[in-house]
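Reader question, answered in our methods column.
A reader sent in the components of a multi-part assembly and asked whether the whole thing could be modeled at once rather than chain by chain. We filled in our standard form and ran it. Here is what they sent:
COMPLEX SIZE: two components
ENTRIES:
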Amino acid sequence: MFENLSDRLEGIYKKLKGRGVLKEADVDEALREIRVALIEADVSLSAINPFLEDIREKAVGQEVLKSLTPGHQMVKIVNDELISLLGGDFQDLTMAPTLPTIILMAGLQGAGKTTTVGKLANRFKGNGKNCLLVPADVYRPAAIEQLNVIGRELDVEVYQAEGEKDPVKICQGAVEAASKKMIHVVILDTAGRLQIDDELMEELKSIKEKVEPHESLFVVDAMMGQQAAEVARTFNDAIGIDGVILTKMDGDARGGAALSINSVTGGKPIRFVGTGEKLDALEPFHAERVVSRLLGMGDVMSLVEKAETAYDLEEQAVLEKKIKKNAFTLEDFKDQLKQIQKMGSIQQLIGMIPGANKLKGLNVDERAFCKIEAIINSMTPFERNKHNIINSSRKRRIALGSGTTVNDVNKLLKQFAQMQKMMKKMASGKGRGGFDLGSMMGGRGMSPFG
Amino acid sequence: MDGTEEDTIESNEEKGGFFSRLKSGLQKTRSGLAGGIDRVVNGPAKIGPELWQELEEVLLMADVGIPAMNWIMEELKKGVAKSLIRDKEGIVKYLKELLVRILEDVSVEEASPAKGLCVVLMIGINGSGKTTTIGKLAARYKGEGEQVIVAAGDTFRAAATEQLQAWADRTGVTCVSQKSGTDPSAVAYDAVQSAVVRNADRVIVDTAGRLQTNKNLMEELKKVKRVIGKVVADAPHETLLVLDASIGQNSLSQARLFHDSLKVDGLVMTKLDGSSKGGVLFNITRELQVPVRYIGVGEKVDDLQPFDPKSFVEALFNE
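And here is the structure of the entire assembly that came back:
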């Protein structure tokens, strides 16, 4: 099964490698694959078709950047378009000029509204704002109790409706109480409802009219299927969605709902994503992350871009020559390390590699790089060029100079020797003279120096 | 559980009421799936690429997913090639047969033990409707004359125990619970044991919702299952995975991973009263060969019914 859009496109474009411009026929072929990828990510068909039209217009005739294959180029176009649609930067909630700010939460059953109310309250509390949580779900058994428990846990006040059974009146009463008490934020937790339940949608409308919230948030399960667009449209018609919160993003959902919803709300921003069960698991939304997930490819584009800015192509060419001649030295090794470090933290880089989220538990010791650098810096230029001459007295001096142990120096030299061996193999084969992170980090445990 | 019948208050109303609700619940599904198919079939396109393309879209919009859709389309094309399908009406008939076949291939009878206590374990992701489904199941079995105990195994989510207790009160069954934060295996153990002591017919164990990708929480579930097996050999007799119909292709991943860890005996699909189409069921049953046991079409106690492939597919299509 194809998991990842760039793999699919790579497959198609293998035969096209080296062409300068994206031709119409090529683009069409790619669009079919993109369509499948989007369907598998649960983007509503009604959102896919116009999106593909846009992509088509943008792609046909575009010149393929030298650094990219045609397949990559298509992925980049799709990627950039998705990011611009979903809005790049994080947009925080709108706060009212006068107290209190009223936030209305709405969505289907089981989307995660009540938990998200707790998460928002936790966030406001962290920003020094006090909240009043309002249980307006009078239908689901123990929904009010759930909010009470969350309130106790966070030490945030929960409005007590005292026998009132009308959600509209509960909300009105709560807002009134909040104004008197100078509370910063009132969060209205409404009952989950189906968008086809006219009675309950009317109720939601009248809450909206009576309390005039500053922010109406649509809480939606990131795993939602094809109907996401339709559901969002109905909620938008009823309450005018100001922002979206995508929940349950800590699973393996592709989050296609984000695009479906965007297509019917006129691009209302996604504010936050829920990333876990605990009350602090709420993250500001970043389009790049959701988009890369949607396309099932990790944050490859950032990785490509980072690699492009960090890697000097000329240097790269020189290096390749050296590797071919088997003249790769410790000095070159150090340069390579520096280039990698320019790209950002290793942990971050690993996170961008598709499929690497399985490695999440992995601990990379960033300091290991500093150590390697220090050791190489303590060598004389001669030693760097000919590491074979480093005997035990030289090792002692190097260890002393770099603040490491002879053992560390030994490990580095051993790894370097292995690397050279591998490069020899690569040079004889067809591989491009890249840099092998895995071998350098010495497999399990990653840190060359435990 | 066999023999006792029709002694519940609502059982006579139930059938007509339920089917009309299923129908009206599936109304939107119909206008999505069958409505779409009707449009395609009554539209101008002749049997050919254009018609196939339109049919594909209709299936995809019902969350059928690409693998099942491809299979269905291939079978339809084969049907045309073999002259089993002669006109566009024939397509609908053949399509129904295909859909029923997918579901019936894995259809099984209820897997309860010959006699004695039947233990049911409910699992699923957060918000899929486990607790509500347990409430409805409990009412159902109680109505059939069983003595039912429900176990509040969701000790994690705030007020989950209270929610189950409310259902228990409403349906008049016993709820076994401990305080929040207790090891769910302990609750399950207690509940099953007390069911044995009280000579109950059925115990339904609730669990906290968890995402299928969370390894540790899946291990926790495995432990619950093991522990239940220690009280009553070969229990749980039924492990039911609850799926939310509004979720798309991720349901397949849920079914896959829960099945890998816990061996799921049956599926329950909830929230079919929305506009959700539940088409992903075709994909799941095809891949995993796990039967659908119940479907939920509303919030009322009797809105949960045993799954019947024929009437499900019929309800998708019939006016």
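What stands out: Chain B touches chain A through 47 residues (CB under 8 Å). Residues 4 and 255 of chain B are 33 Å apart (CA to CA).
Send us your own complexes using the same form.
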